[in-house]
Design goal:
Keywords: DNA damage, Methyltransferase, Transferase. This protein is mainly alpha-helical. It has helices at 4-12, 23-29, 36-44, 76-85, 98-101; strands at residues 21-22, 57-58.
Length: 113
């Protein structure tokens, strides 16, 4: 059985370009509804050489979460740029319309991760 971080990675790689999921949504789908922060930490600790579309995971308000000063690789400006390149639009307050861009995987596919 895969550990929680591996399950996070398996789910995040399935998010289609131009769509997003929230940290909490991922935690719920993986059976750990109180583990939204752990999802963020898993993405922060993505192993070198592993390509994960981390930019597609945002907070429940439809915004990019602020990062620590030491997090150069996953900085908010880069995340926004990558999402915009995929066709995701932000409003003037920096929010993404979750009704339009939120990806909700098919319930039956949950058993695959």
């Amino acid at each position: 059985m895969k550990n929680f971080y591996e399950q996070v990675y398996d789910l995040v790689v399935r998010i289609p370009a131009g769509r997003v999921m929230t940290y909490g949504q991922i935690a719920v789908l993986l059976g750990k509804p109180s583990a939204a922060r752990a999802v963020g930490y898993a993405l922060h600790l993505t192993p070198a050489g592993v390509r994960i579309p981390w930019q597609r995971v945002i907070n429940s308000q439809g915004k990019i979460s602020p990062r620590g000063a030491s997090d150069i690789v996953h900085e908010p400006q880069l995340q926004r740029l990558l999402l915009e390149q995929e066709g995701v639009h932000f409003d003037l307050q920096g929010k993404i319309d979750l009704q339009k861009y939120l990806w909700e995987p098919d319930a039956m596919s949950q058993y695959e991760w």
